[in-house]
């Protein structure tokens, strides 16, 4: 994970004289230092801008510097916004407009016109807001006192979404083989995703992976098996299968790292020269922050890596998921999510077990080793990116995951059970209406608001299905958005 930071740019003007400007600068530095201690990424004070050139210069630098993941602006005093036009027009990094104020209270005895002239964010931030709206510039607006915890959480959440933007713009996906034959929703326009989202999606031969596997040494496998043993319970005697998965993981990781890829796909239809579909191998790579998509689904793979990077510590509880089957008993309606093998252990409630079982689908000569576990209970989201032809649509649904209500002793894969909002069947109707895929990223760490921020920064369509969604409202929303996105 790169070291990211955010730049604090404060707007002002010369009108107030040097003393006021010195006070503004000192306070801005104090605020940036204090906020850096409570936010997930440092906020670096840059400038109290008084001219068009100062703003253009700081934006130019922000665009150029890789470590700068976004800018946060605030107007302690009034900052005439025509001087912001050129800078904001050129800005290519995420932007948060922080509408706050240095003092929390209006001081009854102290307040006079000098105080008012120094502390006028209430109208400074409105002038600043106008130019954002006038320029149609995507931005996040957070209003509130700078020492409030709720404000810290909201800025922190946005920072993580902005890091998701930086990670997206750097994203390279390694595809081993093509997509599963005849499947529609896993297809997409790779030129469009590179233009909009920055993803480089390219293919490598399965034969190259098999060649790489041939170069893996026994010592390398020993070391990785030790790492498996320290993280997971071994519930199989088939050590050969575990060692084979280790060999697959080492070879894939070498190829991914060599090419700078943070995400990969494979398909059970193309395992030519391999004994088993990577299961444990893909799961352990996901645990390290790599994105994965089954059946060649490179969109979900890249999204998995991005949501992971947006989470806690730059590698949160997010993983590749598939809606498999329902429990439709009244009052107990749940989705059961899993995959053939590849569910990320960051979703696990307890310590995963390594098991080996027969896998009938695909060209598996031998039983693949995989991690088996139950998913955590808790609030989360599922995310699907689909290609609507001419544009991308990001669909996010709120979910409530539960401890699976039955043990399912014969199910040989990791499983997560959840109820989609507003309720399972309405949620399913809404999801299907919007065209959401069977593959998703399931996250306990990233919120729908963060994905909305991410979609806004990426300039793609965003659809949210939550507690208040009705099929009727959603249908209308999709009709309107369809028109808007055709015009854009
Ligand atoms: Mn699948």
How would you describe this structure to a colleague?
This protein is of the alpha/beta class and 488 residues long. The chain has two domains: 5-169, Rossmann fold (3-Layer(aba) Sandwich); 172-487, no CATH class. The protein has helices at 18-38, 52-64, 85-90, 113-118, 121-134, 149-169, 190-197, 206-214, 218-231, 239-259, 280-287, 298-310, 424-434, 448-458, 471-487; strands at 5-11, 43-49, 68-74, 95-99, 140-143, 172-176, 200-204, 233-234, 263-265, 291-293, 318-327, 334-338, 353-356, 369-372, 378-387, 392-402, 416-420, 439-443, 461-465. Strands 11-12-17-16-15-18 form a six-stranded antiparallel beta barrel. Helix 6 (149-169) crosses helix 14, helix 8 (206-214) packs across helix 10 and helix 13 runs parallel beside helix 15 (471-487). The structure holds manganese (II) ion (MN). The site of manganese (II) ion has 5 residues, from loops.
* Biggest sheet architecture: 6 strands, antiparallel, barrel
Which consecutive residue ranges, at least 5 long each, have pLDDT under 50?
none
Structural class: alpha/beta
Q: In DSSP terms, counting alpha (H) and pi (I) runs of 4 or more, how many helices?
A: 15
Mean pLDDT: 96
Radius of gyration: 25 Å
């Amino acid at each position: 994970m790169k070291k990211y930071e955010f730049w604090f740019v404060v707007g002002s003007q010369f009108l107030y004289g040097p003393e006021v400007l010195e006070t503004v600068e000192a306070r801005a530095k104090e605020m940036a230092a204090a906020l850096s201690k409570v936010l997930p990424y440092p906020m670096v004070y840059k400038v109290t801008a008084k001219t068009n050139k100062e703003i253009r210069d700081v934006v130019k630098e922000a665009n150029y510097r890789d470590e700068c993941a976004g800018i946060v602006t605030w107007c302690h005093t009034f900052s005439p916004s025509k001087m912001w036009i050129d800078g904001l027009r050129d800005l290519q990094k995420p932007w948060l407009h922080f509408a706050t104020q240095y003092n929390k209270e209006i001081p009854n005895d102290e307040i006079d016109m000098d105080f008012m002239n120094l502390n006028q964010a209430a109208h400074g931030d409105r002038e600043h807001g106008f130019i954002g709206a006038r320029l149609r510039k995507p931005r996040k607006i957070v209003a509130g006192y700078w020492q409030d915890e709720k404000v810290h959480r909201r800025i922190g959440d946005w920072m993580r979404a902005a890091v998701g933007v930086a990670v997206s713009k750097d994203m390279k996906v390694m595809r081993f083989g093509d997509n599963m034959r005849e499947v529609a929703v896993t297809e997409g326009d790779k030129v469009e995703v590179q233009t909009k989202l920055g993803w480089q999606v390219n293919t490598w031969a399965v034969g190259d992976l098999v060649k790489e596997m041939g170069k893996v040494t026994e010592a390398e496998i020993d070391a990785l098996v030790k790492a498996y043993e320290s993280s997971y319970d071994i519930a199989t005697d088939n050590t050969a299968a575990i060692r084979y998965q280790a060999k697959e993981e080492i070879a894939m990781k070498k190829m991914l790292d060599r090419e700078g890829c943070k995400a990969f796909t494979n398909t059970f239809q193309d395992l030519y020269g391999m004994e088993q579909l990577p299961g444990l191998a893909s799961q352990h790579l996901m645990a390290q922050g790599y994105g994965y998509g089954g059946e060649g689904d490179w969109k979900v793979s890249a999204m998995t890596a991005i949501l992971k990077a947006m989470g806690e510590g730059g590698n949160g509880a997010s993983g590749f998921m598939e809606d498999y089957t329902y429990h439709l008993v009244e009052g107990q309606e749940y989705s059961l999510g899993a995959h053939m093998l590849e569910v990320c252990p960051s979703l696990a409630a307890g310590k995963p077990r390594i098991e080996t079982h027969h896998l009938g689908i695909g060209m598996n000569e031998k039983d693949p080793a995989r991690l088996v576990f139950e998913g955590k209970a808790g609030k989360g989201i599922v995310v699907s990116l689909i290609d609507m032809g001419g544009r991308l649509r990001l669909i996010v649904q709120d979910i409530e995951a539960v401890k699976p209500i039955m043990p399912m002793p014969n199910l040989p894969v990791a499983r997560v059970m959840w109820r989609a909002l507003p309720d399972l069947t309405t949620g399913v109707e809404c999801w299907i209406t919007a065209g959401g895929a069977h593959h998703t990223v399931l996250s306990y760490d990233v919120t729908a608001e963060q994905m909305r921020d991410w979609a806004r920064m990426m300039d793609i369509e965003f659809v949210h299905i939550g507690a208040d969604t009705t099929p009727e409202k959603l249908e209308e929303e999709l009709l309107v958005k369809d028109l808007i996105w055709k015009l854009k």
